[in-house]
Amino acid sequence: MGATMKDIAKRTGLGLATISSYLNGGNVREKNRIKIEEAIEELHFEVNEVARGLKTNRTKTIGIVIPELNNIFFAEIITEAEDILRSHGYATMICDCRSDAEREKEAVEFLYHRRVDGLIVMPTGRTDPGFKRFVRAGKPVVMIDRKMQDVPCDCVLVDNKGAARDAVKRLVRAGHRKIGMIAGPDNVYTARERLKGFQEAVAEMDAVADETLITGGNYTIAGGAAAMRKLYKMHPDMTAVFVTNYEMTVGAMMEINDLGIRVPDELSVIGFDNVDFAKASVPKLSIVTQPTASIARAAADNLIERLESRPVNEKADEDADGERMTVTVTLKTGFVEGRSVKTMNN
Amino acid sequence: MGATMKDIAKRTGLGLATISSYLNGGNVREKNRIKIEEAIEELHFEVNEVARGLKTNRTKTIGIVIPELNNIFFAEIITEAEDILRSHGYATMICDCRSDAEREKEAVEFLYHRRVDGLIVMPTGRTDPGFKRFVRAGKPVVMIDRKMQDVPCDCVLVDNKGAARDAVKRLVRAGHRKIGMIAGPDNVYTARERLKGFQEAVAEMDAVADETLITGGNYTIAGGAAAMRKLYKMHPDMTAVFVTNYEMTVGAMMEINDLGIRVPDELSVIGFDNVDFAKASVPKLSIVTQPTASIARAAADNLIERLESRPVNEKADEDADGERMTVTVTLKTGFVEGRSVKTMNN
DNA sequence: ATGAAAGCGCTAACAA
DNA sequence: TTGTTAGCGCTTTCAT
């Protein structure tokens, strides 16, 4: 269909190497440059990235593996990352593994076959679904949001523990003692961190430390609703609840709605993630927010930097054991004040 | 790095063609089949899709261009489509163009350079950002959600007009006469259709037909909020409002919240798209829902069918002018009953 | 059924 | 600087 380098070589009377050189920013005599540009224009020539990829062994494609695409938190990150990567000429292949370890494994393998140059991932579980293979092949992997001990790669995290601790402290300072927590699944890194933060704050601030005040909500809407119900049944005297991700916040609000509990008079609530949802709630919810754009930028920039500097430092970057140095960036969370936390007079 | 066909040819003592034949489901003598399979196993051979793509001129990759990835409606469709396509061996390259025509154009061009085999798109505006080029190259394009007159391609739509008409009729039947509408931007197909549906219903049912009852909300949260405010200021006696997409529904609820309007006592509301949000609202919202999974499936299946049947029908499918027959599928919307519509006694 | 060889469009030595 | 040439890993005639 389209014209090839050969065509424009013929057209200009130049050699293939000259064309290639021009295309790759090499030095070409002014005269020839003009000739080449004219030919490209006339013949509507466009580099065939596939052929180039075959030769260079680089596809200029990044694989992204995420638990759920229809999860605003992830979607916001992906949007931003895709934008940055594309502006650098990298295409992204996104695979949604539906929080399923098996699907995740398939996705990683799929992307490996597709010869993507690097990976941005948010691991679903605690075991490596095949990331190491990329690392071994010298292909950069950046882990977002979640950490995994046994895969040596760069990470972009958020201070989950600190965020949870801070949220609970706010509740205690407002006079709450009996605070419930709707936690995530304990095979997920962020959920464990948020739990730790909650427990630390409870201990430090002398709030009620009762294991049954912590209920798992599985990071889903239904789970959040069920957890809320359970918590309320078991502790009707609980005055505040901390919900630790967006989906569960939605679920908890649904249930609070169903149970006819008045917020914040009867129950104070601090949610997570989605500012828009928080503002649209009645009353407006106070929530912990995550810097999605910064996360995406940190991950994309990191990947690009690794990719572009690779040829030069190919050896310099490795130490005696051939292990790469890895970097972990931890970003701060935010907090948006709403009207869902009651200040107790005591 | 990985083993190549050459390696396993050497290993088995067979010719390249035999290996290729085996890999592509051709006939190979039992004996050799086993030998090949063993060699593949031992050498961890995996087909290099890039090389294959160069040769076959097919990348087994589908491009997806959408207005916003962090929009649940789109995200749900994409997730499903990606899943189906991948299960057929197709990778997807997703480009989010942020509802910007310029970015959309760039995205389409980007995907064209990447030699994707086909496109799934939700056009941002009314003018072709380059889809025709794909059609001309014989590459299938499927348009989702929105239609575009001048690009001859398959479409998967939803009965937007019917959905809007139905929603308004429900309001009228519940006794409402003065009904406001928060509409989308009129350069978007779905927005125009929903508007038509609203107007038809108002005419048919003898509700108040006043142009100022229709306010544009730009399909955004902020727009929805602003429209709600404007509508309420201008028509404090309006008893119901129909909001025509998810983002605007969120925005409208935020504003209703701010204005202290009680739903449904003072104002009845029918929203759009997101069941979870509807259920988490106080009171639960009645909403129009769209069959995202079916939309995705229709689009993906259509694309795969076009792609896989192409070699055989290459000519049979075209008529004298070389024009392809195009298909438009229109799916039905749903309605989820909430508690946000008051039944008036009159 | 199998093998030999050409070539997809590009890059990268190596020469000139 | 520019031209020549040899592949990258695969598919695909065309013989055998």
3D architecture notes:
2 copies of one chain form a homodimer. In chain A, 46% of the residues lie in helices and 15% in strands. In chain A, the strands form 2 sheets. The first copy, chain A, has a 6-stranded parallel sheet. Chain A folds into 3 domains: 5-47, no CATH class; 59-158 and 292-331, Response regulator (Rossmann fold, 3-Layer(aba) Sandwich), CATH 3.40.50; 160-291, Response regulator (Rossmann fold), CATH 3.40.50.2300. The first copy, chain A, has 346 residues and is α/β, with parallel strands linked by helices. In chain A, helix 1 crosses helix 3 (30-43), helix 8 (160-173) runs parallel beside helix 9 (189-205) and helix 10 crosses helix 11. In chain A, strand 3, helix 7 and strand 4 (141-144) form a beta-alpha-beta unit. Chain A binds a DNA duplex (16 and 16 nucleotides) through helix 1, helix 2 and helix 4.
Rg of chain A to the nearest angstrom?
A: 26 Å
Average pLDDT score of chain A = 91
- Largest sheet properties of chain A: 6 strands, parallel
Q: What share of residues of chain A is helical?
A: 40-55%
Instruction: Order the strands across the largest sheet of chain A as they lie in space.
Output: 2-1-3-4-5-11
Instruction: Note the run of SSEs of chain A as H and E.
Output: HHHHEHEHEHEEHEHEHEHEHEHEE
Task: Tell me the total number of β-strands of chain A.
Answer: 12
Q: What name does the CATH topology of the largest domain in chain A carry?
A: Rossmann fold
Label the structural class of chain A: alpha/beta
